[in-house]
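User: Could you go from structure to sequence for me? I need the amino acid at each position, not a summary. Structure tokens:
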């Protein structure tokens, strides 16, 4: 599928390779911490470039943060099996606006893990506004061999 491509770096884990090549996440300023396999915290500070109105973040930014959160949570649960994941679907509920300079924290956890399908839930909070809940989500991910995505192990 990705013949001729070799994205692997010497002695890097799949998570490290993902971080290296996730230019979209870097562009919008997202970063994460894996607490344990299947439990991830994701972070984003709302900046001017994220706004849809003079004060509030675009829903696409929140959706992107949520998709990253859910995806890395699923990835963290299959990395040791030399698998990566792709989003099959996710549903998001926007519960409160995110404002300029808000510090957003997403918490993702595995709800159900099969051999191929993984169901993940996520919540995004605003830490500088008494942890107001910004969004809730649930998603389904497909786990497949990392080589099919262009990674080499």
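Assistant: Here is the amino acid at each position, in order:
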């Amino acid at each position: 599928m990705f013949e001729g491509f070799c994205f692997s770096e010497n002695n890097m884990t799949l998570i490290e390779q993902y971080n290296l090549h996730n230019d979209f996440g870097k562009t919008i300023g997202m970063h994460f911490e894996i607490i344990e396999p299947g439990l991830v915290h994701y972070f984003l500070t709302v900046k001017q470039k994220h706004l849809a109105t003079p004060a509030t973040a675009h829903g696409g930014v929140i959706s992107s943060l949520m998709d990253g959160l859910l995806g890395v949570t699923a990835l963290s649960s299959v990395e040791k099996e030399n698998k990566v994941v792709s989003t099959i679907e996710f549903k998001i509920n926007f519960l409160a606006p995110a404002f300029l300079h808000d510090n957003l924290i997403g918490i993702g956890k595995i709800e159900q893990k099969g051999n191929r399908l993984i169901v993940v839930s996520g919540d995004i909070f605003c830490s500088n506004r008494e942890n107001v809940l910004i969004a809730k989500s649930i998603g389904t991910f497909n786990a497949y061999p990392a080589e099919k995505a262009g990674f080499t192990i």
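One structural detail worth keeping in mind: The domain at 14-149 is CATH 3.10.129.10 (Thiol Ester Dehydrase; Chain A).
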